[in-house]
Design a protein that fits this description.
2 domains; alpha+beta; globular; 12 helices; single chain; Glutaredoxin; Glutathione S-transferase Yfyf (Class Pi), Chain A, domain 2
Length: 276
């Protein structure tokens, strides 16, 4: 469990589940999906990445990498989306999305780890190179602020590739595509055998990976090469929880975002901690 001690102590007073997230993030989506599958009440703290609301002293004081999602459970801060899945499953085991068999539990954890391992070199690189970088153009001042706040070298290197005047190389995209192709082929093989990524039941493995397919679809990845994966994704995206966790968050209105961020934490003086 990736529990951290944040610099912002205001969140220590939070009761229940509070989620810092954004709409089109596959990492945010998987956490929302599990929470909605379990029908847990939660408080939304919406972070608009397209306007770089995460690049602020306030948010970095909650999540030291400045990424989403961040879960706060009764004042305890948990980061890294797949660790959050395991944490929520442990805290709220009914209904369960973890198999009973030891080998299948290990397989689920392996799929979660794989998702995390290829997130930046595979999923994030392909999505940014194909779509997102053009949507999050940066000024030199924003680049300087990010470099001042960010301490994670992998993220610094990644985001430097779409600084003003720079772009991802063909080599970057080819390497990302190769990682994704191997993962999708393995997914297809498992789904062909049992219908799901692990065994014959919907599990945390499926919850972790299904929102990634949404991200890859938007980025134009040739998923038609993997019909079994698309069939599996189609079944999961018909689940009632998907509408609440994914569909309604893909294009939130300005009014919704204002309403969502109205629940942002206050500082020690009782004032909202802008811009969260």
């Amino acid at each position: 469990m990736a529990v951290i001690e944040p610099a912002n102590r205001v969140v220590a007073s939070f009761k229940g589940l509070h989620l810092y997230h954004t709409g089109r993030s596959n990492c945010s989506g998987r956490v929302r999906l599990l929470i909605e599958e379990k029908r847990l009440p939660w408080v939304s703290h919406y972070i608009d990445l397209y306007t770089k609301k995460n690049v602020s002293t306030e948010y970095f004081s909650i999540n030291p990498k400045g990424v989403v999602p961040t879960l706060v459970h009764n004042g305890q801060v948990i980061v890294e989306s797949n660790d959050i899945l395991l944490c929520v499953e442990e805290l709220y085991p009914d209904p369960s999305f973890m198999p009973n068999a030891v080998d299948q539990r290990e397989a689920v954890c392996a799929w979660l780890k794989r998702s995390g391992d290829i997130h930046i070199p595979g999923i994030k690189t392909f999505a940014y190179a194909s779509l997102n970088a053009a949507l999050v153009e940066k000024t030199p001042e924003e680049v300087a602020l990010y470099r001042k706040l960010q301490r994670d070298q992998e993220l610094l290197e990644f985001h430097s590739k779409h600084d003003p005047g720079r772009s991802f190389s063909e080599k970057d995209v080819a390497a990302a595509s190769a990682l994704l192709r191997i993962a999708l082929a393995d997914m297809s093989a498992n789904i062909g055998r049992t219908g799901y990524l692990v065994g014959r039941s919907y599990s945390l493995a499926d919850i972790s990976w299904a929102p990634t397919i949404t991200t890859l679809q938007r980025a134009g990845y040739p998923l038609e090469e993997f019909p079994r994966v698309l069939d599996w994704y189609g079944r999961i995206s018909q689940r009632p929880a998907w509408q609440r966790a994914m569909t309604m968050w893909q294009n939130p209105t300005k009014e919704q975002m204002v309403e969502m961020t109205a629940a942002a934490p206050t500082n020690a003086m009782g004032n909202p901690t802008s811009p969260l």
